[in-house]
């Protein structure tokens, strides 16, 4: 049986998709710049080897680019039959976030390329990852015991990357997901203060949330050595959270898997049990 290609196989969702597929007994081609199969979005010469002999592909795109469209055309030529695209929540809301890096344009073009491919396709649109607190954007701050961010009292319905992977694995291997757009969220919206309190209870360590103004946040990042433009870009990333634009709940996990999504408390407990945070 031909393999399933997983791009971004070392990332938060990609490596979990690889694990989920292998747990199903599926042959997987784990591809990334430093994975079992070398794949580099910026080097199209690596695309053909990754695609050859595959029947389905999980596409984790490179933000700020429009490389998915030529990649999809290459996949069609290789006889791929099914695509699952990792997109983003808020893509259909032009006011969702400031887009200085051209990320939104790339996501829109990628979704269009997949829809127009003539192949079976599924699109996932996850919100903020719960794993941002353990292995991403907020992880170092959590380990230091203090989240200093310009998020105000805004809330987000953080989604567990394990749920994202389960949805992707189902879409790659099962019928019934063709043409579906799965908006993915957790079961409840939490503020950063509530998230910090949940982590504190799970770990037995105090994690505090300290709300900052945007200017205070930018100044702190610049003082740490970040260029002002990059510091401002990080502040822009937080804006949707501060404004509550990601607090709404979505039914994608339920529709795709027939069960509710895992809660943030479930995520925190599992991460603690796995040694993801120091006690």
Please explain how this structure is put together.
- The protein folds into two domains: 3-126, NAD(P)-binding Rossmann-like Domain (Rossmann fold, 3-Layer(aba) Sandwich); 129-159 and 186-247 and 263-279, UDP-galactose 4-epimerase, domain 1.
- The protein is 39% helix and 17% strand.
- It is built from eleven helices and eleven strands.
- The strands form three sheets. It has a seven-stranded parallel beta sheet, sandwiched between helices. Strands 7-11 form a two-stranded parallel sheet.
- Helix 3 links the parallel strand 4 and strand 5 (82-86).
- The termini are far apart.
- The mean pLDDT is 93.
Q: Which strand order does the major sheet show?
A: 3-2-1-4-5-6-9
The value of Rg in angstroms is 19 Å
Total beta strand runs: 11
Overall CATH class of the largest domain = Alpha Beta
Q: What name goes with the CATH superfamily of the largest domain?
A: NAD(P)-binding Rossmann-like Domain
Mean residue pLDDT: 93
Organism: Saccharothrix mutabilis subsp. mutabilis
Pfam families: NAD_binding_10 (PF13460)
Domain NAD(P)-binding: 8-174
Protein name: NAD(P)H-binding protein
């Amino acid at each position: 049986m031909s393999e399933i290609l997983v791009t971004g196989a070392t990332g938060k969702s990609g490596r979990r998709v690889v694990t989920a597929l292998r747990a199903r007994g599926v042959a997987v081609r784990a591809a990334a710049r430093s994975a079992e199969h070398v794949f580099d979005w910026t080097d199209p010469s690596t695309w053909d080897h990754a695609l050859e002999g595959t029947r389905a592909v999980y596409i984790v795109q490179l933000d700020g680019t429009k490389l998915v469209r030529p990649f999809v055309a290459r996949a069609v030529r290789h006889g791929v039959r099914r695509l699952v695209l990792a997109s983003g929540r808020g893509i259909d809301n032009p006011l969702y976030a400031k887009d200085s890096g051209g990320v939104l344009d790339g996501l829109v073009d990628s979704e269009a390329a997949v829809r127009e491919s003539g192949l079976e396709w599924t699109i996932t649109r996850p919100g903020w990852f719960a794993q941002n607190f353990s292995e991403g954007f907020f992880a170092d701050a959590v380990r230091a015991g203090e989240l200093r961010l310009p998020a105000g009292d805004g809330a987000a319905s953080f989604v567990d990357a394990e749920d994202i992977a389960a949805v992707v694995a189902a879409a790659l291997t099962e019928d019934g997901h063709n043409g579906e757009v799965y908006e993915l969220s957790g079961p409840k919206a939490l503020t950063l203060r509530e998230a910090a309190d949940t982590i504190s209870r799970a770990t037995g360590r105090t994690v505090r949330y300290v709300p900052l103004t945007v200017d205070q946040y930018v100044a702190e990042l610049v003082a740490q050595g970040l260029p002002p433009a990059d510091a401002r870009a990080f502040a822009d990333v937080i804006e949707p959270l501060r404004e509550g634009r990601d607090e709404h709940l979505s039914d994608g996990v339920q529709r795709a898997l027939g069960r509710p999504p895992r809660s943030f408390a479930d995520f925190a407990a599992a991460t603690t049990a796995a040694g993801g945070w120091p006690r």
